[in-house]
Protein: Adenine DNA glycosylase
Amino acid sequence: MIFSEILINWYSINKRDMPWRLTKDPYRIWLSEIILQQTQIKQGLPYYNAFLNAFPSVFELAEATESEVLKLWQGLGYYSRARNLHATAKYIANDLEGVFPNTYKDLLKLKGVGDYTASAIASICFNEATAVVDGNVYRVLARYFGITTPINTSKGNKEFKALAQELIDVKRPDEFNQAIMEFGAVQCKPQSPNCNMCPLQDGCVAFNAATVNKLPVKNKTLKIKKRYFNFLVIISNEGKTIIEKREQKGIWQNLYQFPLIETNKNTDIVVFKELLNKHSLLKNRAFEFTLYNEGPIVHKLSHQHLHTRFWIVTIKELPVGGIPVAQIHDYAVPILIGKFIETFNF
Structure:
C-alpha cells in the first residue's frame, strides 16, 4: 500500500470529530483555518463556535465593527489574524458578493491567507490537488523520509512543499491533506509519538535509524527580547478609569490598554514615583499609588517576553475623560490585561 493510501485509511478510522469536517463551506473552512493557526484545537474550538454564532456568514462578519471582532478574538493572541480576517470578510462580502475564490492561486491574494491556508481551502472545498504543509506535515515527512533540512529555512520550505505535492492523492486531495495533518497531531506527535502502533513504521527512516526525537530539524530562532511594561490602573473617587487604544503597529494594535510606562528594567517604588510625577496624566496632581503584583507577570510572545507590573493609582478626579470601571469589560484588551481585570474584579 502506498504512502497516501496508508494515511487516508488511517484517517478514516482515527480522525477526530470536528465541526469543520462536516462541511465544504469555504467560509467555515477559512474561519477554522485562521483561528487554528498557531492555536491548539482544544483552545480554538470554542472560538470557532462563538464566531459562527455571532457571524453565521461572511456578510455578518463583514458588517461587524473591528472592535466587535477583536473582542470576540480576545485570548487567542496574534491579533493581526483577527484584523486580516475582518478585512478579508469585507472584501469577499462587498467586492466578491460573498463568493470565495475557488483556486489556490486566487485564494493566495486574500489578506491573511498564505500557502498553507490557501492549500487547505482549495483542496477541502474545491478538490484542488494542492498540498498543505504545516508543523504536523513537516514532522511526518521529516521522520518518514529522514529529511534533515531545517524546516524554518527557505530551502526547507521549498523541499517539503515539493515532496508533499508529489505525495498528494490527486483524486482525494481533501482527504490526504486532512489525513497527514491529523496523523501528525495524533499519531506522529512531537513528544512520545506512538511508533509501536504506527502503520508507517516499516518504511519510516527515523524509526529504523532511532532518530525520531531528532527530527524535524529546526534552526535556532532569534534571541528573545525582554521588555518591561508598567500599566497605570488609574481610578478616580467617582469610580472611573482610563484606557487607551493602542494604535501604533506591532503587538496589540487597535486593542485597549491602561496607560503604559515602558522602562528598560524593573524599577523600585522610589524611582517609579519619579516617573509618575513626570507623567502627563499625573503631573502636578495629588495621587496615591501601590504596586499590585510584586513579582512581574512574564507574558511570553514569539520573539519577546513582557515583564509586566500593574500599578494602582488612586486620584480624586481623572485628568482626562475616562470610562466607568463597570464598562471596562466591553473593550477588547490583550489577554494579559484581561486576566488582570478578572483578578482585580473591577
The mean pLDDT is 93.
